[in-house]
Amino acid sequence: MSQQKKLNIGLFGFGVVGEGLYKVLEHTPTLNAQIKKVCIKHPEKKRNAPATLFTTDAAQLLDDEDINVIIELIDDAEAAYRIVTTALRSKRAVVSANKKMIATHIEELIALQQKHDVPFLYEAACCASIPVIRNLEEYYDNDLLQGIRGIVNGSTNYILTKVFCEQVSFDEALLQAQIAGFAESDPSLDVEGIDAVNKLSILLTHAYGILSSPNALLHTGIQSLHKQDAIYAKEKGYEIKLVAQAHKLHDGSIAAFVLPQFVAKDDQLSTVRNEYNGVIIESSLADKQFFYGKGAGGFPTASAVLSDLSALRYNYRYEYKKLNYQAPSKLGNDFYLKVCVSFKGLLQVPHERFDQILEWSSNEKRCHVTGIIHFERLIEDKWWKQPGISIVLYPDGIIDNYEPRKNELEYAGLDFVEQEVGI
């Protein structure tokens, strides 16, 4: 697609992001792009655009030869998959923000791009206004990239800010997030860490050349956090954030997961509040670089879509350099985590699964146990996903070289249970 060629857009979806994009394009004449048709699901809804722009017939967009760019901004992953694959097979450039669809089908989508020699861009799928995908794709060599760590879900960060900093109830904070357009239509995608792990899966491809199903990555969200966890964190001088991360281990493999994490006040992620996202990229030569911006909402996400549209004028496309031109990294499970587990009754937690218990405390409301546990045990075991149990990673909680050793609390057996620690 030449620089001078006009971008005629077929847009799927006219929600918060779609309408935001429509308004932005109206004020960006230099882009030489226009939305020719918008496919919607509910024609009865009143929309801030001419009625002639809309249709419920997808074929009016996908079969129109004048439309050379398809933008997909719907929240139905299966429908998005059909739209995107149809468009790629018809040699149309595609821009998408559907992180679930991309993460689930990324290997096939890469193959379709290569087969039909057509761009498929999706910067908006990860951190909305933050250009993290393009930075990982263009500027960080696989061998030098030490890790990625970030708050990649604006909805959960908004909720945590309201709950832990403003003492709003969880339900009220979630409702506020939905009203503001930050939360997904299905809030479980946000609060259970599903949205974050989808984004992490995509970032792994561009950072390390790793093609991994989101279901293969260990993850949980904020759904089990207790208000006593916030009190405990504050006593320790921490805040709690939902953090997606990938970290290069000593053997070159990559540790990758999504967990709530204690964040110290001097950590740059502690400054990330409300719907904002923040990503720290660490490399061997450049140390740490911090990317910060709005990670949810109509205009921030539309700005990323607009950036992709602008790049299409130059026929920009992802080259998947870490996958195609380097030896891709592999996921690794041979490492340890330092975590705090909180729960209501002591017998809920099999303390013998810890390699070392470092600290425990309790009151009439909650028990907290801090310990070191092998990552594979968290993958194998499901006790930490039971209702009423929360798990939070400590700062610098990834322990690469660890030799298990006993101390006065490790494997204390019945003595540990019989103390009842105030329950």
General description of the model:
By secondary structure, the protein is α/β, with parallel strands linked by helices. Among the domains are: 154 residues, Dihydrodipicolinate Reductase, domain 2 (2-Layer Sandwich); 87 residues, Alpha-Beta Plaits, CATH 3.30.70. The protein has 15 helices and 16 strands. It has a six-stranded parallel beta sheet with strand order 3-2-1-4-5-6, with helices on both faces. The chain has a six-stranded mixed beta sheet with strand order 8-10-9-7-11-12. A four-stranded antiparallel beta sheet has the order 14-15-13-16. Helix 3 runs parallel beside helix 4 and helix 4 runs parallel beside helix 10. The protein starts with 6 loop residues before the first strand and ends in a 5-residue tail after the last helix. The C terminus is likely disordered.
Q: How many separate helices?
A: 15
Q: Do you know the CATH topology of one domain?
A: Dihydrodipicolinate Reductase, domain 2
Distance from N terminus to C terminus (CA atoms, Å) equals 68 Å
**Helix percentage range:** 25-40%
Class per helix and strand makeup: alpha/beta
Overall CATH class of one domain: Alpha Beta
Strand content: 15-25%
Q: Give a count of the beta strands, DSSP E runs of length 2 or more.
A: 16
Average pLDDT rating: 90
Sequence of strands across the biggest β-sheet: 3-2-1-4-5-6
Return residue spans where pLDDT drops below 50 for at least 5 consecutive residues: 407-423
Can you say what the CATH homologous superfamily of one domain is? Dihydrodipicolinate Reductase, domain 2
CATH architecture assignment name of one domain: 2-Layer Sandwich
Morphology call: globular
What profile does the largest beta sheet have? 6 strands, parallel
Rg estimate, integer Å: 23 Å
